[in-house]
Amino acid sequence: MLGVYGNVPAYDRHVKDGVSLFVISTNLNEISLRQLASFYNENISEFSSFRPLFSKDGAAYTPIKLLDMYFWQIGYMMDNQESYTNELHQVIEFAGNYKKPPK
To answer: Residues 11-42: pLDDT tens digits?
Structure first.
């Protein structure tokens, strides 16, 4: 579904590791898709800012493909912690603050 339509994340090992940091379901179901949509919408300005970097010849990645790439990269960095210490620290801090209720 990801490769053809770009409307469902791959939910491979790296994506699952990445979404788990944000307390997003690691199972492909309606709940996880709603959680991903919420995450995207809450961070739409950031995704929109780098979306043009992945456009070529008028074709652009879908929001779900961007989410897949984002969470895959996080999972990859988690799998290679020695090379991504600083980046992971920032991601973990962001993830920790993601679901905190406002004060």
So the answer is: 999 999 999 999 999 999 999 999 999 999 99
Domain count, the chain: 1
Does 33 reside within a domain?
yes
- The secondary structure of the chain, three-state, reads CCCCCCCCCCCCHHHHHHHHHCCCCCCCCHHHHHHHHHHHHHCHHHHHHHHHHHCECCECCCHHHHHHHHHHHHHHHHHCHHHCHHHHHHHHHHHHHHCCCCC
Q: Tell me whether residue 50 is in a domain.
A: yes
pTM above 0.85, yes or no: yes
